[in-house]
């Protein structure tokens, strides 16, 4: 059996950090050896640091309870103990950029859950089933950083992972215009209902920065490599509205799309059913067996019923029909803290390992 890679989680006391801790508890590739957080948590055991703010319905894993939390700025010490880090810190973007680059320059691969480095031209923003070829940028990034092992790979915004996979399966028909409205769970803001009583019986039609991410990040995911950086796709044009709704987990998207070459409904359903990516071909531990699942029922997918499909790593689709303004409309759903955040990062790390980037 291969020796497990040693993992650090930066921001391990927050919501996404807690998800990472639970996902890595029995992982076949990775073992948590370091948890980093703010100075307020540093020096405490992980159990002491999170016992009064544990947000998941799962217990705190025994394998991390007694790990002494380190200050994330102990970069040299943490880097000496790990083979890679997951970064899920809650800090100003400028500080996140600096700290992620500092770890990379200390020869530690960084898998980032943050938006800070998503627009760095040589940082891949990866949905593993869609644009695994963007990992080739790592060699160019290493040259810029002057590293042999260290690099940064970012996970895209959680909201785009509800609908971009469904569109990606249809790219041969050249989608031209997309309108999407996302109905996003409160866990996307790092909260549970007890933290946010104002959300009960309420809908908030604004999420700061989310619409810009929803409209622009897919174009980097769909971009191509040129001169050692990503050149964004120029189409499709995307417009969005992002709305916070009173559900715990799961981002639902109402999608409208027009194509240069309009496919038939039967073709769309066939392509969704048959779509696979590199994680499925490599049989990665966190990969969903069925990436895209279409529901024939008129009232599916439903957030509460379907967000956990394929252990929260699958994408659910339903209500495909022709539209009076666009070619088609349909509904998509993804689990935002699993596929959209922590689970997506773990899947990316698995892909990096199998592709030889975590040597």
UniProtKB/TrEMBL annotation:
Family per similarity comment: Belongs to the aspartate-semialdehyde dehydrogenase family.
GO molecular function: aspartate-semialdehyde dehydrogenase activity; NAD binding; NADP binding; protein dimerization activity
Stored NCBIfam families: asd_EA, PRK08664.1
SUPFAM superfamilies per the UniProt record, alphabetical: Glyceraldehyde-3-phosphate dehydrogenase-like, C-terminal domain, NAD(P)-binding Rossmann-fold domains
InterPro entries tied to this protein: ASADH-related, Asp_semi-ald_DH_pep-lack, NAD(P)-bd_dom_sf, Semialdehyde_DH_NAD-bd, Semialdhyde_DH_dimer_dom
Domain Semialdehyde dehydrogenase NAD-binding stretches: 6-138
Keyword line: NADP, Oxidoreductase
Active-site residues from the entry: 158, 251
Keyword Zinc in annotation: no
Top-level EC class: oxidoreductase
Pfam families: Semialdhyde_dh, Semialdhyde_dhC
EC number: 1.2.1.11
Highest taxon listed in the record's lineage: Bacteria
Annotated GO biological process: methionine biosynthetic process; threonine biosynthetic process
Record-given protein name: Aspartate-semialdehyde dehydrogenase 2
């Amino acid at each position: 059996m291969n020796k497990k890679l040693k993992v650090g989680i930066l921001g391990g006391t927050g919501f996404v950090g807690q998800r990472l801790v639970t996902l890595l508890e029995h992982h076949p590739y990775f073992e948590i050896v370091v948890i980093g957080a703010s100075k307020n948590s540093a020096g405490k055991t992980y159990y002491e640091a999170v016992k009064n703010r544990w947000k998941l319905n799962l217990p705190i894993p025994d394998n991390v309870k007694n790990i002494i939390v380190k200050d994330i700025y102990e970069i040299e010490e943490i880097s000496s103990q790990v083979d890679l880090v997951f970064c899920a810190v809650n800090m100003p973007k400028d500080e996140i950029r600096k700290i992620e680059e500092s770890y990379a320059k200390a020869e530690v691969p960084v898998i980032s859950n943050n938006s800070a480095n998503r627009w760095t031209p040589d940082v891949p923003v990866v949905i593993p089933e869609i644009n695994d070829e963007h990992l080739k940028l790592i060699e160019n990034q290493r040259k810029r950083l002057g590293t042999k092992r260290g690099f940064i790979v970012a996970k895209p915004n959680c909201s785009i992972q509800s609908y971009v996979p469904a569109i990606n399966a249809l790219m041969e028909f050249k989608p031209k215009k997309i309108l999407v409205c996302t109905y996003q769970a409160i866990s996307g803001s790092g909260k549970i209902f007890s933290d946010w009583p104002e959300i009960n019986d309420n809908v908030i039609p604004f999420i700061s920065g989310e619409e810009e991410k929803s409209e622009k990040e897919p174009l980097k995911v769909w971009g191509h490599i040129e001169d050692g950086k990503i050149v964004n796709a120029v189409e499709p044009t995307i417009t969005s509205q992002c709305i916070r709704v009173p559900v715990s987990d799961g981002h639902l998207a109402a999608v409208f799309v027009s194509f240069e070459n309009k496919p038939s409904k039967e073709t769309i359903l066939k392509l969704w059913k048959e779509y696979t990516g590199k994680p499925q071909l490599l049989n990665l531990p966190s990969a969903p067996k069925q990436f895209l699942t279409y529901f024939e029922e008129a009232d599916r997918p439903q957030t509460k019923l379907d967000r956990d499909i394929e252990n929260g790593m699958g994408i659910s689709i339903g209500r495909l029909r022709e539209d009076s303004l666009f070619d088609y409309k349909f509904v998509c759903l993804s689990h935002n803290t699993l596929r959209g955040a922590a689970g997506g990062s773990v899947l990316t790390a698995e892909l990096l390992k199998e592709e030889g980037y975590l040597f």
